[in-house]
Amino acid sequence: MRRTDNEFLARYGPWGVVAGASEGIGRAFSSELARRGLNLIVVARRRTELEDFAALLRSDYGVEARALVLDLAGEDAAARIEEATEDLDVGMLVYNAAYSLIGPFLDAPVEEHLKELDVNCRTALELTHLFAKRCAGRGRGGIVLLSSMAGFQGSPLIANYAATKAYNMILAEGLWEELREAGVEVLACCAGATRTPNYQRSGPSGASAMVPVMEAEAVAREALAELGGGPSIIPGKRNRIASFLVRRLLSRRRAISVMGNNMRSMYP
Ligand SMILES: NC(=O)c1ccc[n+]([C@@H]2O[C@H](COP(=O)([O-])OP(=O)(O)OC[C@H]3O[C@@H](n4cnc5c(N)ncnc54)[C@H](OP(=O)(O)O)[C@@H]3O)[C@@H](O)[C@H]2O)c1
Predict the structure, then answer these.
(1) N or C: which end of the chain has fewer CB within 10 A?
(2) CB 161: neighbour CB atoms within 10 A?
(3) CA angle 120-226-247, nearest 5°?
(4) Whether the Cβ atoms of residue 240 and residue 226 lie closer than 8 Å to each other
(5) How many whole angstroms from 22 Cα to the centroid of ligand 1?
(6) Nearest-angstrom CA–CA distance, 106 and 77
(7) Model confidence at 36: pLDDT above 70
(8) DSSP character for 4?
(9) What tens digit of pLDDT does each residue of 111-133 get?
(10) pLDDT tens digits for range 177-225
(11) Is the CB of 146 under 6 A from ligand 1?
(12) Lowest model confidence (mean pLDDT) among 24-28, 31-35, 183-187, 202-206
């Protein structure tokens, strides 16, 4: 749904929270929100990068931006964000950060897989509940949960990560319908491969046979333009075509095999 920047600010401002904000897709979302005039609480673990980014948002866009340094895997993460936003009128949550293990399922200890659930699902759920309630109370607001095309089917070598991304998508889609009447617009952003520092660090050495790599700014822009439409978006036309082919034309078994082959060619 296309909204002017003023309409956007009135609907989703004056404050927004971006969980996982200092680089990559979360940074792009933060910049897009600040450009539209939202004040931001930006959350990440590395203090210097986050504080520098908050300062940049203040100077580039003239908004208020506060850095909140914490680990979203922590059991107290949502409580600390609640405390930090107690006196603020928050109308927007972008839950961006994810923990993404890549490699054979059995090579990682189960504790690492549980950490994926903590970051990608538990804290995402807690913050969605917190801010959806606040937005419903004021009759307007928006929530974007980052999902992934990997969550559309079983995905070898990232099996648990992909399952957490399916959770993000299904949670967002259910709430999209359920909270609409209360004025809360929820969207799942099902990104494909996106050029972010985390993606580059994961060391994809081969090219993906399936999809091109997108830029983070384009992902954020497309998602925010779709907020109020929904329930989910796959940013990028070529990603949408790839997704259509894999989901509609292939059997489930074949789609999982294609995903496995793609992962093995990217991470040999
Ligand atoms: N990049 C892709 O190809 C791709 C594809 C599909 C979907 N996605 C989804 O898009 C989202 C963003 O991905 P991304 O590639 O930009 O990388 P990301 O590692 O998920 O996000 C990076 C940002 O989140 C922060 N962060 C990460 N873990 C955190 C934690 N435990 N606690 C607090 N902050 C944390 C990082 O800062 P600190 O390190 O300082 O904490 C950084 O600011 C994820 O949900 C991912 O599943 C990405």
Answers:
(1) C
(2) 21
(3) 65
(4) no
(5) 9
(6) 28
(7) yes
(8) -
(9) 999 999 999 999 999 999 999 99
(10) 999 999 999 999 999 999 999 998 887 876 555 568 999 999 999 999 9
(11) yes
(12) 202-206
Q: Cα separation of 255 and 174, whole Å?
A: 24
Paired tokens of 264: 């093995």
Q: What is the DSSP string of 174-202?
A: HHHHHTGGGTEEEEEEEE-SEE-HHHHHT
Give the integer Cα–Cα distance in Å for 147 and 152.
10
| Amino acid identity, position 167 | Y
Supply the residue whose CA is at minimum distance from atom 36 of ligand 1. Answer: 20
- Which residues are known catalytic residues? 161
Q: Tokens representing 40?
A: 């931001």
* Alpha carbon of 251 to ligand 1 centroid (Å): 31
- Paired tokens of 235: 């940013």
Whether the pTM exceeds 0.90: the reply is yes
Residue 266 identity:
M
Look-up: residue for tokens 């600010």?
9
CB 168 within 8 A of CB 146: yes
Query: What's the CA-to-centroid distance between 99 and ligand 1, angstroms?
Result: 7
